[in-house]
Amino acid sequence: MTVLINASPTNGLQMTSDGSGIVKLQSNSVTTNALAWVNFAGSRSVTPRSSYNVSSITSSAVGTFTINFTNALTDANYCAVISGSSVNAGGAVSGFTNSTTAPTTSAYNFFVSSGWTVGVTSSTGQDCPYTTVVIFGN
After folding, report:
1. What pLDDT shows up at residue 33?
2. DSSP state of 125
3. Pick from 16, 22, 65, 67: which is nearest to 44 by CA?
4. Residues 23/15, Cβ–Cβ less than 8 Å
5. Residues 1-48: pLDDT tens digits?
6. What are residue 83's DSSP bridge partners?
7. Can you tell me the distance from the alpha carbon of 99 to that of 64, in angstroms, rounded to the nearest whole number?
8. How far apart are CA 117 and CA 100, in angstroms?
9. How confident is the model over 97-108, as pLDDT tens digits?
10. pLDDT at site 59
C-alpha cells in the first residue's frame, strides 16, 4: 500500500494509505522522494544490481532500455535522471527520454548515448557497465 506522509503548514503532519506499496514523503502536497530507481549493467541481457519499484528492465537495441514499474505511478509527468559510465576512457555519456515512446505510468523508455555531435541528428547508443535511473514525480 502507498503510505503518504505529508507535512502541511496548515494541517500539520498527515498520513494516508492507498494500497499500492509505495512510500511517498511530501511537503505541502509535493512528493519529495524517488518513486522508483534502478542500478544496472546495461547490455542486451540487462542485469539489475539493485532497485526500488522496478519490476523489470528490457533492452531493444544498443543503448535503448525500458524500465517497467512494479506499481504504476500517479501520472506520466515525472522527471527521470539518468547516468551511465562510459566504456571508453574519458568518454562522455548522456541519457535521454526516447522521443518515439512517451513516458507512461507503467514504464519509462530511454536512450543512453556516447554523446551528440554538433550538426548531427543522430547519436550512437551505448550499453554502459554502470547505468542508473531515478524517477521523481507525484
Report:
1. 80
2. B
3. 65
4. no
5. 566 677 777 877 777 776 666 677 777 777 778 889 999 998 778 889
6. 132
7. 11
8. 20
9. 777 788 999 999
10. 93
Q: Determine if the pTM surpasses 0.85.
A: no
Burial class (CB in 10 A: 0-12, 13-18, 19+), 92: exposed
Query: Would you list the DSSP string of 55-102?
Result: EEEEEEETTEEEEEESS--S-S--EEEEEE--SSTT---EEEE-TTS-
Residue 26 and residue 7 in contact, taking contact as beta carbons nearer than 8 Å: yes
Amino acid at 57: I
Measured torsion, CA atoms of residues 98, 129, 115, 96, in degrees rounded to the nearest 10 = 20
Task: Name the pLDDT band for 86 (thresholds 50, 70, 90).
Answer: low
Segment holding 107, helix H or strand E: strand 107-113
What does the alpha-carbon distance between residue 133 and residue 110 come to, in Å, rounded to a whole number? 10
What phi and psi values does residue 46 have, to the nearest 5 degrees?
Answer: -65, 135
Tabulate helix, strand, coil % of the chain (nearest 5).
Answer: 0, 50, 50
Spatial separation of the C-alpha atoms in residues 138 and 22, rounded to whole Å: 11
Fill in the DSSP letter of residue 11: T
